[in-house]
Design a protein that fits this description.
The protein is mainly alpha-helical. The chain has 5 helices and no strands. The structure holds heme C.
Length: 105
């Protein structure tokens, strides 16, 4: 029985861990890219360049700014479609976990 435990824990971790493709990219695409794209780079920011998981380490400064605006609730601006609090939490948790992981290296 105990021999199954590591596998069970691993599976549980896979189920609960936030992921870039599930929790980050879709929200950015749906609630940010409408204003932050190559044509309409609001605040001089094209978020289409942020839809790849590799950018989290490659462009951490940019992601820190994104996380700060989302955490503060100032992006997306009031009156625009935004993610649910649960989705927002998952996105911020994913980013913070990644930043923490980079800092431990
Ligand atoms: C309705 C249009 C609109 C939407 C939707 C929107 N933004 Fe913005 N954003 C702006 C405008 C306009 C600015 C520039 C004014 C300002 O800084 O508040 C801006 C500025 C920013 C900045 C600051 C740029 C910098 O580097 O100084 C960040 C970061 C940002 N937005 C992130 C986001 C994120 C993340 C989302 C989605 C969760 C989002 N925005 C959704 C219009 C939008």
């Amino acid at each position: 029985m105990l021999r199954c435990l590591p596998i069970a824990l691993f599976a549980a971790n896979l189920l609960t861990a936030a992921s870039f493709d599930k929790d980050v990219a879709p929200l950015i695409r749906e609630t940010c890219v409408g204003c932050h794209n190559e044509k309409l780079a609001s605040g001089n920011l094209n978020l289409k360049g942020y839809l790849d998981t590799a950018t989290v380490s490659a462009n951490r400064q940019g992601w820190e700014r994104i996380a700060a605006r989302i955490r503060a609730g100032s992006m997306p601006p009031l009156g625009n479609a935004r993610a649910t609090p649960e989705q927002t939490d998952a996105l911020l948790r994913y980013l913070q976990d990644e930043f923490d992981r980079f800092d431990r290296r």
